[in-house]
Design brief:
about 120 residues, mainly alpha, 4 helices
Length: about 120
Amino acid sequence: MTRRQRQFQAGALLLFAAAAGYLLLLLMAFSGWAIFAIAMSAAHFALGLGVMRGWRIAGYGAFVIALLGAVVTFGAALPESGLLRLLFWILLGVEVVTAALLLGLLWNNPRADSV
């Protein structure tokens, strides 16, 4: 395992955690958020695999998806109540931390040869 792969592993684990959270959202609120939860879970999982391999292009895609997920979950958390609202807030936290971590990793060493 290279140094680059070890650095991106934390981001990949956060992406996998978000994918699991979206699957939990699918189980809790199937009718309202089914398509969004399936799409976000699949995107987080696929990009997490790429980030775990150290692919910078997957890191850029995961950063954009994490920002998109943060915006949507923030908007979705406001009208909800109870356990569903708590899940949205947890997902928001995971998305923000993931985006911040990936921004730091991608901004820190922007090499074209590591794509």
